[in-house]
Specification:
about 325 residues; mainly beta; Chitinase A, domain 3; seven-stranded antiparallel beta sheet; 4 helices
Length: about 325
């Protein structure tokens, strides 16, 4: 249990603490990215101004066949490709709108303007999940305002994709054509306040020296008993049992977190106000837990470059929702 837990949630500990450290100066998000849409946002978003997006659906789009949920066929484009990020809704969903700060779950197919297929999550059978701040600008701004259940055709000029550089099998200067089924979003998948507030005590307490206070559904406080010995082992303790949906294999769990280094109250910080983060339920070993659970993780992320020591990290995580492909 000890080694497995450290392996599975060590990365979560580090990413959460990174969010804490950046909270004062910027907004951050943590999730896994799709393959060809993952991007460092460097060149195309160096300006603070958002690019103009044509949402009229009347731009020059390649022909697409296939219904929502089906593997689409993207034909070669004809004539000049659009010079703006261009969005066409092929199927209208009835779910919540997607925010630019969301993490989304999608199926997608990517082709070049000449019809060359690059990749397809429809064929792999694994939807992609990522923050809209971790992808090419064409996706960030093109998917903003779409709805859960939409099938979207998205044309991305090279300056909002990969520019003039070649990336894997995508030549430099390529116009990208996507068909995207929007399956879920973080803002549309959070449990309501009433559900989160109904959690009850599990009868268990955090390990010795760790003090966690706060009502179910509210931001908890974390502190450490002065002079307490650090826990010898990593652990996971559910101190509030939620009443929300059971989390299953393949789900992405939404969570809010407070954390710090054991014994050092000065390191305690909270990412609560930044909104929920997302992570694969399997990766952080919360399959079988419920939305509304409050879990205290004690982990050892490994020695730090500065001191070489390996202090125990404590995280208090509230599971506030889940994203599940429907």
């Amino acid at each position: 249990m000890k080694n497995t837990l450290g392996t599975r949630i060590g990365a979560l500990a580090l990413s959460t603490l990174l969010v804490f450290s950046l909270a004062a100066c910027s907004s951050a998000d943590s999730s896994e990215s799709a393959q060809s849409v993952s991007h460092d946002q460097s060149a195309a978003q160096s300006s603070s101004a958002a690019p103009e997006v044509d949402r009229s659906g009347k731009a020059n789009f390649p022909e697409v066949t296939g219904a929502f949920g089906e593997d689409p066929q993207i034909e070669a484009g004809k004539g000049e490709a659009p010079t703006q990020i261009s969005v066409k809704i092929l199927h209208e969903g009835d779910g919540p709108a997607v925010s630019i700060n969301d993490t989304v779950m999608v199926n997608y197919e990517l082709a070049l303007w000449d019809g060359t297929k690059i990749e397809s999550s429809f064929e792999s059978g694994h939807p992609a999940t990522f923050s809209l701040h971790q992808v090419i600008p064409g996706w960030t701004y093109g998917l903003e305002g779409t709805h859960i259940g939409d099938r979207v055709e998205l044309v991305v000029p090279s300056e909002y994709g990969y520019g003039d550089r070649a990336t894997a099998s995508i030549p430099g200067g390529s116009t990208l054509v996507f068909v995207i089924d929007v399956l879920a979003s973080s803002s549309g998948s959070q449990a309501d306040e009433d559900t989160l507030s109904k959690g009850t005590s599990s009868g268990k307490t955090a390990p010795a020296g760790i003090i966690v206070e706060g009502e179910a559904g509210k931001e908890p406080t974390l502190s450490f008993t002065e002079g307490a010995a650090a826990p010898a082992d990593e652990s996971r303790t559910t101190i509030i049992n939620g009443v929300g949906d059971e989390i299953k294999t393949g789900d992405y769990v939404l969570y809010r977190a407070v954390g710090g280094v054991f014994g050092d109250n000065a390191t305690v910080s909270s990412a609560w106000s930044q909104g929920p983060m997302a992570a694969p339920a399997d990766q952080i070993e919360v399959v079988g837990a419920h939305v509304g659970d409050r879990i205290v993780f004690v982990t050892n992320p490994g020695p730090t470059p500065e001191s070489g020591e390996a202090p125990m990290t404590v995280m208090v995580i509230d599971l506030v929702g889940l994203m599940r492909a429907k």
